[in-house]
Amino acid sequence: MTDRPSERLHALDAVRGFALLAGVAFHATLSFLPGPQIWVVMDSQRSAVLSVVFFLLHMFRMTIFFLIAGYFAHMSFHRRGLLSFVGDRLKRIALPLVVGWPILISAITACLVWAVVKTSHGHPTAGPPPAFPTLPNFPLTHLWFLWVLLLLYAGALALRAPMALIDRSGGLRRGIDRLVTLVAGGPLAPVLIALPLAAAFALQPNWLMWFGIMTPDSSLIPNLSAIAGFSLAFGLGWLVNRQPDLLKTWQGRWPLNLAVAVVATVAVLALVGVTPVLTPEPDANRRLLVAGLYALATWCWTIGLIGAALRFLHRESPARRYVADASYWIYLIHIPVIMALQVLVSDLAWPWFVKYPLILALAFPLMFASYQLLVRHSFIGAVLNGRKTPKPVNRGRKARAADTALEPDAPLP
User: In 81-204, which ranges are continuous DSSP H helix?
Assistant: First the structure.
């Protein structure tokens, strides 16, 4: 195993922050999508352009996130040890889920009621009271990623324990490393890595092609494509951390991978269209073709964007580190903020290319301000980022630099 150059972590941390902040832009498009209503509020001005933005971001943002989560999880486990690692994950992942869910579901429900009242001009039609979900059904909302992370951490530890017991000499693990190098380090890496996800798409009877990996936000048991896509990404990240020279390979091939990603994405859009489709594809051949192309595009974007970040964002940047630190908090709170702004502008006659940027221009400063004022220097920041950043009062250059130094597993995953 080679040494891990610390500067590479700056790039991965930047990509992780980008993936989370891209989620804000992603959810902001939902009210503007053409076709049937799939969001609690639909804007008076729909946009095929924002439909493409939604489609593109959904292809890769969470796959990137889970791959980097696996990479940092392996690093953190070996730096901390088992008990400290478990305690850290419970504090930074499980605690925000348990504490944040009731607060956020209340805020989301309030926005939903506001949207219904506004749409009905103050006279909503009374409907049956919502039924309490029966397990395993559960409205995880956008916090599903925390639940899936906990499942993946538990799965990784459950697999590692017998592996360490059986493979005392390390020979089996070295064999796995060689296999990972063969699969993930060759020129056909995106094709080979995409095969399990493509198979999951093809085997899932209710797969909605337009939505790719179906978000597991309403059940404690993830669907097949989510299991295949996110567990593969997490596991690959875990194993790549054992031999980070693979990152150099991805860095060298970023132009090719992104070029293939663009071609595959255009091909999928040509097959499925730019309007969301809420029914499964009956044509088996068409379904198989889209499954393969979509999975290939997902992994070409994932490996290509990570490679590009390693090429261009490898240097330390206090600004990027600040954004990466803030991204976790911002992603946790963004849904009710975005929903409220969507409801606010939904019936205005302004064009979408005014309203959509306006939503983001209002949401991001508000959420960054809340991070700076409520989180960064408070106990909340200590929970989410693994440390509380001291306020920069009468502090020297070395102390300020320490705030921007990237810890091996900070801030998340």
Answer: 82-89, 95-119, 144-166, 171-185, 189-203
